Amino acid sequence: MVRKTKADALVTRQQLIDAAIEQFALRGVSNTTLTDIADAAGVTRGAVYWHFNSKVEIFNEMWRQQLPLSDIIKHRMIQNEKENPLGWLREAFVTGLQYIAQTPKQRALMQILYHKCEFNKDMMCEMEIRQRLCFRHENMRRILSLCIRQGSLPADTNIELTLVMLHGFFSGVLKNWLLSPESVDLYHQAPELVDYIMATLHPHPALWPVTLDTATTFQRQGL
Questions:
Q1: Considering the entire predicted model, what is its pTM?
Q2: Mind telling me which PANTHER family this protein's record contains (predicted)?
């Protein structure tokens, strides 16, 4: 028998996590068994127990690995958040939606979060997952404050209510799109969707900063 190295064990562990994401998104967390995960990863059920004590442990580790969406897309951003915070905010939403639309793993994670999971006390809570997976509220709060200081948003803008609205927009678009992906071309229509919500932030759309169309930018960069 060939003895596995530590590196081999880490590869198997990651294969199990990746298989769990695939199976959770397909079957739902409660309906997925460890055997389903083992079969999808091409290993035995015993190999699963070598790395994880339970399905919940796999579930929690799966989310611990995820970077915030803002960290994932930051290298794709063109706008400078200090020079043009409102333009940066628009581009961040557009780029985030487009990244999810074109990345199967990220789409699967969103599917699990919004449609395929019933949480219990042993699982990482939904709010913590949202903070890990989506845009961080403290970062958004800072950007909105900068917009107000620079005059690109009204001085009386209620930042906390705006955060609720923006979070609701982002979550709502994704939840509905995931139910029927063929109903909306999310990648190409993301700029238009975002512009509708941006229109609620400022009473005078003509005063919005001029921003680059992210879809055009992606094409130019070959992404």
A1: 0.83
A2: ACREF/ENVCD OPERON REPRESSOR-RELATED (PTHR43479), ACREF_ENVCD OPERON REPRESSOR-RELATED (PTHR43479:SF11)
Within 10 angstroms of residue 104's Cβ, the number of other Cβ atoms is 11
Per-residue model confidence as pLDDT tens digits over 141-194: 999 999 999 999 999 999 999 999 998 898 899 999 999 999 999 999 999 999
Q: SS3 for the chain, per residue?
A: CCCCCHHHHHHHHHHHHHHHHHHHHHHCCCCCCHHHHHHHHCCCHHHHHHHCCCHHHHHHHHHHCCCCHHHHHHHHCCCCCCCCHHHHHHHHHHHHHHHHHHCHHHHHHHHHHHHCCCCCCCCCCHHHHHHHHCCCHHHHHHHHHHHHHHCCCCCCCCHHHHHHHHHHHHHHHHHHHHHCHHHCCHHHHHHHHHHHHHCCCCCCHHHCCCCCCHHHHHHHHCC
Question: Which residues lie closer than 8 Å to 102 by C-beta, 6 or more apart?
Answer: 187
Measure Cα distances from 78 to 6, 22, 90, 210, 213 in Å: 40, 32, 11, 12, 10
- Spatial separation of the C-alpha atoms in residues 102 and 72, rounded to whole Å: 13
Contact 174, 110 (CB under 8 A): yes
Q: What phi and psi, each to the nearest 5 degrees, are found at residue 163?
A: -60, -40
The 10s digit of each residue's pLDDT in 15-74 is 999 999 999 999 999 999 999 999 999 999 999 999 999 999 999 999 999 988 888 898
Spatial separation of the C-alpha atoms in residues 21 and 111, rounded to whole Å: 10
